[in-house]
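Service request form, structural biology core

Requester: graduate student, group of Dr. S.
Request type: structure prediction, single chain
Budget code: on file
Notes: please return the result as structure tokens.

Sequence provided:
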Amino acid sequence: MPLLNTRKIYKPKSYYHVYNRGARRASIFSQPKDYWRFRSIARSALSRFSGIKILSFALMHNHYHFLIYQENIDDMTRFMKTITQRYVLFFNAKYKQSGRLFESCYKARLLEEDNDVDTCQKYILNNPVDEGYSNWQHSGLDI
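Core staff response, request fulfilled:
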């Protein structure tokens, strides 16, 4: 039986809670500049994939969350593949590592109920606060 949200349901014009964490729950951002690099990679990919909108995000030391709207059925797959591949190549080169950075492929929960998008956005934006970070600069509405 597949893990929750690993078998994804792709629909056009839909909202998703997308998330992943480091392999063995290890850090995926070792230095402050790593957060900025991930954000830069995501912004660059957004310019290539016009069917993707990030409504909110939170980058934590060993995981990330996105609230994503996808216009076309394959936008999110292409976007997430681009940003994770580029970030893993950067991270492994910088820290002279090889192999897996993330525990698995990203998870994506389709948000279908009327209040799911608002609830998910509150959850994502409160994630840093719930983990003890105040004034966390790597979460918000604009990646």
